Amino acid sequence: MRTKKVSLYDTTLRDGAQAEDISFSLEDKLRITSRLDDFGIHYIEGGWPGANPKDAAYFREAGKLPLKNARLVAFGSTRRAKRKAAEDDSLKALVKAGTPAVTIFGKSWDLHVKDALRVSLMENLAMISDTVSFLKKNVSEVIYDAEHFFDGFRQDREYALSTLRAAVKGGADCLVLCDTNGGMLTLDLVKVVREVQKALPGQGLGIHVHNDSETAVANTIAAVAGGVRHVQGTVNGYGERCGNANLCSIIPALQLKLGLQCVSTENLTGLRALARFVSELANLPPLKHQPFVGDSAFAHKGGVHVSAILRNPLTYEHIRPELVGNRQRVLVSDLSGRASILQKAAEFGIDLKSKDPRTTRILDHLKELESRGFQFEGAEASFELLIRKVLGTHRRFFELKGARVIVEKRRENEEAISEATVKVAVDGKVEHTAAEGKGPVHALDGALRKALYRFYPKLRGVELIDYKVRVLTTVEGTAAPVRVLVESGDKDERWGTVGVSANLIEASWQALVDAIEYKLLKDLR
């Protein structure tokens, strides 16, 4: 493997935070900074210290963090027109941030110079060189982001290159070519990178691209393959509009496929955990179908596929999932064959053989349930219980003696009131309880748990994390069957369960009971 290194520059906290639905708190930003540093990122762009109080506070607090691998970076713009750089308050704020590196962006596209800045082309060049020169006198490393460079290059090649030369004149350590609008196709981007390399031989170059044409990752990889060694992007590809280049795809592609060193092999195994950590703090669900780190990245459903990967994973996996901290998953569905059933049983610690007639019974039962609308891909806990029931090894933890749900609406402009009563028996002892909830399912869940706490106090540690309802057919209108998927969890893990019925409460009851029974089964292991 070649040992050429790539510098990873993360802008999740600045460019990524500009994504719709994302708003990091100060504490979020500090926690992400520490996590990125632990992972081995080389540069962490924390924000724009002159733009808002939160970013100014971030740099005060982040400077106290004992970073081992990363350099903190403050971000800002070139000086204002017709003003000395040393007199510009935003540039003073960058210096005051006290970071070892500063990234400054300037205009490369003459359209932006004329229509956005409304200054002359010569004044823009002076703004770039003066700004970089001032910063270089006060900060050890200055990175220049050539905003809209590729659009500018297509419009006026010589002027776009002159903006880079102005940054070099000021003393910039690295020139980053930006596809700010995200419209470049890979073949065209590579041609421009080559032209820049010819015009500025020996100059260190970086790449910063957006994903508006779904090419951000490909464009970044192609630029690096062409000699660029400074890579900017965000975790999970978060960013304005369609997002930024996704470091969770770029890093393993560069390291595992191009042989370029990005992080240590050990740290790379923490990539999936990093992706999920950032999505959690962003308060966004993990991207299930995301390459490399998503739940579905190494999930196999078809019987032919499952049979093949059990013999040799390379048949349907482009890398070993463990290299990025992921795992191989076998899904169960009406496409499943014996190999899928055997693999899942093994995961549950159940010893089954291919020719065992019980395997056939499980497969037949699975197909029959899925024909009725059950789906176990997101409900593996329910599937384990299904196997145990067919095998006759399932333990009943309680017996339902009765359940009732009342929904009452007293006035037109008031919310309906939901109340549930549940009666259960455990080892001959009966518990009869009631609970109110925000809706009938919430009330039913509360009443069932309340009835069982006396017998199984560990259920207090179970949390209902997610609840989804899918109408299976629209032909029957409000009488249509529904599928309910419930995700539950405790301090150790999460699990999914499913229920199907034309009655929403019944479908929910099935999923809720499975969730509780799985927890109780898990605690016995």
Task: Report on this structure.
The protein is α/β, with parallel strands linked by helices and 525 residues long. It has helices at 26-39, 53-62, 89-96, 110-117, 121-138, 149-155, 157-170, 186-199, 216-225, 247-257, 265-268, 271-281, 303-311, 338-347, 357-371, 380-391, 440-453, 504-524, and strands at 7-10, 43-47, 71-77, 101-107, 141-147, 174-179, 205-209, 230-233, 299-300, 329-330, 399-408, 417-426, 429-437, 463-471, 482-489, 494-501. The strands form 4 sheets. It has an 8-stranded parallel beta barrel with strand order 1-2-3-4-5-6-7-8, surrounded by 8 helices. A 3-stranded antiparallel sheet has the order 11-12-13. Helix 9 runs parallel beside helix 10, helix 13 crosses helix 14 and helix 15 packs across helix 16. It is elongated and about 85 Å long.
